[in-house]
Amino acid sequence: MQIDIEKIKNAQHVLIVADNAAFANASALYSGVLTLHKKVSLQNREPLNVNLSFLPWFDKSRQNRPSTADYIIEVDSEILDLYMFFIGNGLKINQKMATALYAGLLTRYDNFISSQCDGAIFALISELLGLNANKLLCHEYLLSRVPLGFMRLKERLLKSLILKDNARHAFVSICDDDLKSSNTELVDAFNIMKEFLTIVHVEKVTLCKSDDNNKIIKEI
Question: Can you give the pTM of this predicted structure?
Answer without folding.
Answer: 0.77
